[in-house]
Specification:
about 30% helix, alpha/beta, four-stranded antiparallel beta sheet, globular, six-stranded mixed beta sheet, about 230 residues
């Protein structure tokens, strides 16, 4: 699913590397945490994973394709297979819950009948069926995060990337959202979650990529059994 080979990255060609010689290989259907203190390079690494940035050196392979060999159109097609959940949600406040979640499908040109059925089903699944006509400012932080997650997965991405998804939430809501990610993984979605919340990492049995000052400390990735803590969280 994702392979990094000796990848380094810097924002300014004359500046210092943010990431140094990073290598790892994540299997399809796997679930990994990405940890590290503030400034360790987590957000930069996530940017490379969702193809928002290109490496300064090294090779990235996504979905079996070497990124360096692809043109802009091919990169766009790959990005359509990736769902993104940002810490600040990035919802459109003038759109309802339904329309925020439906937006990716409308961009893809799906028929409204298909959009309505798929969005309503997903909103029920994440516990927001009764809030589909609400605007984001009227929702709680946890509800907004679930809207963001629903929007990220409505197109059935092969890969879901979440950058500090529980950073602004209390522990109870954060745990419930982690349960939702677990359910998505059981359905076949490959998941990578960047977090500095060590208690979240310890409660769920998944391998963790650890960054320190742009260097990956753990390069041997071993899949662990899915946590037995899973339940129907909503």
């Amino acid at each position: 699913m994702i392979k990094f080979e000796n990848v380094s990255f810097r924002y300014d060609k004359n500046g210092e590397d943010i990431l140094h010689d990073v290598s790892f290989d994540l299997d399809s259907g796997s679930y990994h945490f990405l940890s590290g203190s503030s400034g360790s390079g987590k957000t930069s690494l996530m940017s490379l994973m969702y193809l928002g940035k290109m490496p300064t050196s090294g090779e990235i392979t996504m979905f079996g394709k070497k990124i360096s060999t692809l043109d802009r159109r091919d990169l766009f097609k790959l990005r359509q297979q990736i769902g993104l959940v940002f810490q600040n949600y990035r919802l459109l406040n003038h759109l309802t819950t339904f329309d925020n979640v439906a937006l990716p499908l409308r961009i893809l040109g799906k028929k409204e009948g298909e959009i309505k059925a798929n969005v309503n089903e997903l909103l029920e699944w994440v516990g927001l069926g009764d809030h589909k006509d609400n605007l984001p400012p009227t929702l709680s932080g946890g509800q907004q995060q679930r809207v963001a997650i629903a929007r990220a997965v409505i197109g059935r991405p092969k890969l879901l990337l979440a950058d500090e998804p529980t950073g602004n939430l209390d522990d109870e809501i954060g745990f419930r959202l982690m349960g939702l990610f677990e359910q998505l993984n059981r359905m076949g979605t490959t998941i990578v979650i960047a977090t500095h919340n060590q208690s979240i990492i310890e409660q769920f049995a998944h391998p963790c990529l650890n960054l320190r000052q742009g260097t990956l400390l753990q390069t041997q990735i071993t899949n662990k059994p899915i946590s037995q803590k899973i339940r129907n969280v909503f």
